[in-house]
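Input C-alpha cells:
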C-alpha cells in the first residue's frame, strides 16, 4: 500500500533547504540511502582532498612535512582543536584532538579520579556504551579497587531513558568522579548536562561527559556549564573517517594539573625537542596528549571540519531536528500498525540526531533494509537506529526509507532473514 503522505511535500522541503548544496560535498552511493551517520559519517570531497594533501607532503617533503607541509603536522592537532572548539562550547586552549575515545577516557580518569577517604567510587549509568564501563572498571582495578563495589551505575526506569533526578540521587558522599554520556547511544536521549554538572559541583564531585553521539550533531556549552572534562570521537557526526583521532575537552580551571598519563607530545611545544627527562607540560589541554599524532588519520578532519565552520552547528541542529521530526510523523502515520514503537524522545530539547525504532524483528528488518540499499544500524535486542544527517540526507530520503519499511512489512520480506545481528552490527 502506498504512503498516505505525499512525496511532493518532501521534495518541496528539500527545495527550501539552505543546506541542500552541501549534499554535493559528499560521496553518496547512487541508488543507496545512507542512514548510519551516527556510527560512521560519509566521506566528503574536502576530507579526501586534505588527506591527499598530507600524503603529498609525505611524498614530497619527507620529515620536513612536520614543519613545512601544506598542513604542518607538528601543530595539526592544535589547528583541529580550534575547529572543534565552537562545536563543544570551549576555547581552543581547552580542546585537543588526540588519541581515541577510550584512550582519552583512560587519560582523563587517570587524571581526575583521586579516591580519598570515603570518596572512592565512580558514578556512571546502566545505559552507557560498554567501552566506557570497561575503561572505568580498568581504572578502578589499577587502584586496587573492586569495580563491583566502587563502580556505581544509575539505573534506568524503563530501559530507554535516564532520569536526571535518579542520577543526582546517586551523587552520594562516596562518589569521587562522575562519567556520563551526553546522548544515550541507543535511545538518543540528551541528558541535561548543565543541571548534572551544577548538582555534581554542589556536592564537591568532578564530572565528565562522553560526547560521541552529540559532537557535530547538537550545540554544547562545556565551558559555560562548568563541565570538568569531556571526550568524543570524530568519525560519527563529524565525518572524519573510520578510526580517526578523537577529541577531548578540559576546563581551563584544571590547566596546570599534571595528566595521569604523560607522554612527549603533551610537552610545551617549544620544549618538546629539548629531550629533557623532566617534562614541561603544555599549559592547556595540549598537555593531555600522549604520543605522536596519527597524521594520516588527522588529515581528513581538516576538510571535514571546514564544512562545519561554514555551516555552523546551530544550522546543522535545526535541519537535524526537522528531519527527525518529519521521520517520526511518517512513522506514526505509516508504521505503528506494524508494531514499530518510537523509542527516542519526541521533545526537541531531549532528542539527539538519530531515531530508535523498536520492533521484535529489528535485526531481520535491518537486513531487509540493506537488501533495498538502505543503510541502517541495529542495536540489540530490538532497535533499528536511523540517522538522517543534516549535511547530506534529504527529506525525500526520509520519505523513501519509511516507504521501503512499509513495503518490507506489508510483504513480510524480513522473514527471509535470521533475526540475529551481523558480526559488526
Amino acid at each position: 500500500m502506498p504512503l498516505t503522505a505525499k512525496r511532493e511535500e518532501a521534495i518541496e522541503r528539500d527545495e527550501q533547504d539552505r543546506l541542500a548544496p552541501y549534499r554535493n560535498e559528499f560521496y553518496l552511493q547512487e541508488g543507496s540511502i545512507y542512514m548510519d551517520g551516527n556510527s560512521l559519517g560519509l566521506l566528503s570531497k574536502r576530507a579526501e582532498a586534505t588527506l591527499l594533501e598530507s600524503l603529498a607532503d609525505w611524498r614530497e617533503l619527507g620529515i620536513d612535512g612536520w614543519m613545512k607541509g601544506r598542513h604542518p603536522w607538528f601543530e595539526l592537532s592544535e589547528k583541529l582543536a580550534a575547529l572543534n572548539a565552537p562545536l563543544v562550547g570551549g576555547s581552543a586552549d581547552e580542546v585537543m584532538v588526540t588519541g581515541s575515545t577510550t584512550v582519552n577516557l583512560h587519560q582523563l580518569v587517570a587524571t581526575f579520579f583521586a579516591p580519598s577517604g570515603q570518596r572512592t567510587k565512580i558514578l556512571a549509568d546502566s545505559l552507557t556504551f560498554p567501552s566506557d564501563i570497561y575503561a572505568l572498571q580498568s581504572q578502578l582495578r589499577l587502584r586496587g579497587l573492586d569495580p563491583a563495589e566502587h563502580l556505581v551505575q544509575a539505573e534506568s526506569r524503563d530501559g530507554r531513558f535516564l532520569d536526571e533526578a535518579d542520577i543526582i540521587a546517586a551523587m552520594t558522599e562516596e562518589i569521587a568522579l562522575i562519567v556520563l554520556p551526553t546522548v544515550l547511544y541507543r535511545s538518543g536521549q540528551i541528558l541535561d548536562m548543565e543541571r548534572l554538572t551544577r548538582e555534581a559541583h554542589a556536592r564537591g564531585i568532578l564530572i565528565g561527559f562522553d560526547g560521541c553521539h552529540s559532537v557535530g550533531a547538537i550545540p554544547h556549552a562545556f565551558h559555560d556549564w562548568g563541565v570538568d572534562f569531556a571526550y568524543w570521537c570524530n568519525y560519527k557526526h563529524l565525518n572524519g573517517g573510520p578510526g580517526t583521532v578523537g577529541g577531548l575537552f578540559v576546563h581551563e580551571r584544571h590547566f596546570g594539573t599534571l595528566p595521569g598519563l604523560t607522554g612527549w607530545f603533551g610537552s610545551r611545544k617549544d620544549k618538546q625537542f629539548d629531550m629533557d627527562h623532566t617534562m614541561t607540560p603544555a599549559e592547556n589541554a595540549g598537555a593531555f596528549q600522549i604520543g605522536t599524532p596519527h597524521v594520516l588519520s588527522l588529515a581528513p578532519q581538516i576538510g571535514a571540519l571546514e564544512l562545519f565552520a561554514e555551516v555552523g552547528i546551530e544550522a546543522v541542529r535545526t535541519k537535524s531536528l526537522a528531519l527527525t521530526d518529519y521521520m517520526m510523523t511518517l512513522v506514526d502515520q505509516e508504521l505503528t500498525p506494524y508494531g514499530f514503537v518510537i523509542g527516542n524522545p519526541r521533545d526537541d530539547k531531549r532528542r539527539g540526531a538519530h531515531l530508535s525504532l523498536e520492533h521484535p524483528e529489528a535485526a531481520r528488518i535491518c537486513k531487509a533494509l540493506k537488501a533495498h540499499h538502505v543503510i541502517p544500524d541495529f542495536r540489540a535486542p530490538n532497535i533499528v537506529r536511523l540517522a538522517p544527517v543534516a549535511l547530506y540526507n534529504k527529506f525525500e530520503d526520509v520519505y523513501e526509507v519509511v516507504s521501503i519499511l512499509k513495503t518490507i512489512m506489508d510483504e513480510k520480506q524480513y522473514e527471509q532473514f535470521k533475526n540475529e545481528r551481523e558480526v559488526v552490527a
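The mean pLDDT is 97. The CA atoms of residues 177 and 378 lie 32 Å apart.
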